[in-house]
Amino acid sequence: MRLAAVLLAAFLTGGAAASPLAYGPWTGAPDAHAVTVSWASAPASPARVEYGPLAPGWPLDPFPLAQTYTPSAAADREIVHLRLDGLLPDTWYVYQVVFPDGSRSPVGSFRTAPPPGATVVFAVVADTQWQWEGTNRVRLVAEALDRGPFLYHFILHGGDLVETPIPSHWEFFFRSMAPVLRWAPLLPVLGNHERNSITYYQHFTFPPGGGRLDKRWWTLRWGDVVVVGLDTNARRPQDYVDQVDWIRESLSGPEPHKFVIFHHPVFSSDAIYHPGVEGLQTLWHPVFVELGVDIVFTGHAHNYERIERDGVTYLVVGGGGATLRPLGPERLEGSRVAYDDHLFYLWVETGPKGIAVEVVGVARQVEEEIVPSATILDAFTLPRD
Fold first, then answer.
1. Which residue range is the domain that position 54 belongs to?
2. Per-residue pLDDT tens over the stretch 305-347
3. CATH classification at residue 10
4. Which of 192, 260, 361, 384 could join 354 via S-S bond, C-beta 3.0 to 4.6 A?
């Protein structure tokens, strides 16, 4: 039994230390019949992805399918995206990246899109950024997020994934978030710290979208859920007008549960560092009200706040690991719950009865110390009409 446990642990965590795998794997751009598996290798290396539907004998049964990747040229480092097509809908899959030397990545999982009526579970986090010293706060949040495979359908990130979009900071992000990123596709939006860098676009694959490389804004349709990811870092006024058209088109479908995610808060009681953006209040908020958006997720302000305005619930969720920031002494109109001393993530579940949200506290800042503290900071439901 002890030997079997050792073999199973080795299978789940990957292969030899000399593996070309620099970080990863992670997945993106999921739909009912496909997903993209991604990883970074150093140096560039051929590889194959072994994958298959979750079987009763997993993890001891072999994966029945494989796709092979061969680099076009030798390089010191390479970010790889391999599309797996022809998948079964509404199905959990397991996968692993395998290199010619026999080394393997940790095992990962993903789910293909379900039909309308299915329960959908996803997580939300924002503002992970970077720490120069002390406790790795991003890793704390990732380890709390990690509830194992076959759970989250996808993970949303509200921007500021990294402090600066340079290779070492991307490696810090993916290594810190590794406990959870292997279990579900990651769908981020641009934060100001990404600086619209090409390295952001190089790391991620998305559902159908628009703007730069068709990745600056996007729409995920998933059973009864539609999620629209937007960009609030654009400098051209036309980009915001184009996104209004995208919002209207994306949210006019049959999905009863409507979510939007972008970086800068429309409303916020963080009066010192990151108050709400008046332009978004004027341009986007009326459209969200008109189209019946349930929840808008934003980051940028490094705290938590739930604000209700005109039937739309706004959640500021900047507690993914960046330095926490205080809220102002007075709360905005519609502010229901607010915390400025916790790292946290969101658990969201949708079903025939509506939407349930839990804001899960991971650790509390006590003066200069980060103290682990598992607690529910907020919980609410939005009944389905």
1. 2-111
2. 999 999 999 999 999 999 999 998 889 999 999 999 999 999 9
3. 2.60.40.380
4. 384
